[in-house]
Amino acid sequence: MSIDELRVIALQIGHVDDEYEAEIEDYNQDAGVAVFAWKKKESEELGIWIELANDGSLLNLSRDVWSTKKGFSNFSEEQLKKRALEFVNHHYPYAENQFTLEKWNQLEEGTYRLSYVSMALELPLPFSGFFLTIAKSGEITEFRYYGEAINIQYPEMLVEKEVIKEKFLTELNMDLQITEISSELYVDGDSQLHLVYEPSLPFYSYPADGHRDEYSDDEEDERSESLECIFRPKENQEQLNDLIGFDEQSFEKIREVDLGNVTGSVWRTKAGSSELQDDLTIDGFFHRRNDYTLKLMHDNESGNLHSMYSFLNRKGNLLLDYLECKELALQMLFHLYPLANQIFRLVVAKEGNEEGSNHFHYEFRVFHKEIPIRVGAAMISVNRTTGKIDHYMSPGLDPELLVSVNTQPAITEVETKEIYQRAFTIKLEWTQEYLENHESHYTLTYVPSFPLLEGEIAFIEAQTGQKILKKI
């Protein structure tokens, strides 16, 4: 089919009306996929995304639930499930019989998820079949069709479960650290900082036939690195906007979105706006969103800079070395955290920074009384040719809150291992793996399992011994 014919089909599937305007129309004939996207004229953050195969079959649909005009209705759960299957059968008449029901459940945001998959050895094969979500209004908000699973590699033998379980637990470590127990991510989370032990297993999965490459890709490639204390720069006269190269008079704000804890804003240079081209391809979409822009995020409570990224492609005549750029990175860090030397340590890779790059990248990890903060690091990239900060990412926490954390654990690492091991077992699961030529295949593996718990153990609280579980 031509892109014009596919566009007509996409408009009908998406029920696209005059409230929307086209944002992407792209047809990759080699891949046999056409992509269409529309944004709502009143709010470009709301929209519709549709992918079609070259014969017009629906592959992917995403529609913001907030864009529906219908609102909430009195559809029963059984009626919603029936409407969901009617939608699937309209596009793929044999799918309900071709695949096996995996899940029908209510999601937190008030929508329902339906998924069907291919099965092998009575186990589901990931990324097969289809899934969709349906709002209480009866509107399909998401649909993805994968089709039949292919390249299934059946093991010639199965190693006994207890043998592989022992391999998992032999090198189990419990790492002491501080982390936020988010209510969104963890069962009974309170969104407060806690001293915890995090289980660290030697691998994420193990082939069911016992044949595992010693240098398997799923093993972490640990860098050789050291930590270095930092000191306040001798000269710290530049203001924050000077360091990041932001002069509000030379920019215009083109987008702003309140994301709850932070507000993101996108600023484009006034000179750059005239350079943009009206191109509806996917590449054109990203150029319109990013070219000549500076993207900023500020914390809604404190107003502090949370992150920034430059798409300005800035090039100057300087050629600053590692130490000169490090001084600029430290100026940025101390601007935002006046007591940075008390909580941050600079990560120094033994192989060093790449001199050939136009940027030097610095990672400052957060510690409290020598205990690391999980996922607590400030990332700063300095442009060697301009002396400006082109990228900054905050550690995502208020260092002042660390003062209230008790850093003396009430239980030992040995005790936490025992708590973890009592709940731990393994189960068989199909995993999809990719080869160098990008072809995928399915392998039967053993993976961690916690059948008597509501979810997987993420941490063990170091004061109480409570098991902190990931939400399923």
Task: Describe the structure in your own words.
It is built from 10 helices and 25 strands. It is an alpha+beta fold and about 475 residues long. It folds into 3 domains: about 5-150, no CATH class; about 160-220 and about 410-470, no CATH class; about 230-405, no CATH class. Strand 5 and strand 6 form a beta hairpin.
Characteristics of this structure?
alpha+beta; 3 domains; eight-stranded antiparallel β-sheet; 25 strands
**Helical stretch tally:** 10
Gap between N and C termini, in Å? 41 Å
Q: Mean of the pLDDT scores? A: 90
Shape: globular
Structural class: alpha+beta
Question: Which radius of gyration do the C-alpha atoms yield?
Answer: 26 Å
The largest beta-sheet arranges its strands as: 13-18-19-20-21-17-16-15-14
What's the helical proportion of residues?
10-25%
Strand content: 35-45%
Please describe the biggest sheet, giving its number of strands, its sense, and whether it closes into a barrel: 9 strands, antiparallel
**Domain tally:** 3
Poorly predicted spans: 216-221
Tell me the number of strands. 25
Pfam families: DUF4901
Organism: Metabacillus rhizolycopersici
Protein name: DUF4901 domain-containing protein
Domain YcdB/YcdC repeated: 4-147, 249-395
Layout of strands and helices, then pairs:
Blueprint: H1 3-14, E1 20-28, E2 33-40, E3 43-53, E4 58-63, H2 77-91, H3 95-98, E5 100-106, E6 111-120, E7 123-135, E8 140-147, E9 152-153, H4 161-170, E10 173-180, E11 193-200, E12 206-207, E13 225-229, H5 240-244, E14 251-258, E15 262-269, H6 270-273, H7 282-290, E16 293-299, E17 305-310, H8 322-336, H9 340-343, E18 344-349, E19 359-368, E20 371-383, E21 389-393, H10 413-423, E22 425-434, E23 440-449, E24 457-461, E25 467-469
Pfam family, one: DUF4901
Protein name: DUF4901 domain-containing protein
Organism: Metabacillus rhizolycopersici
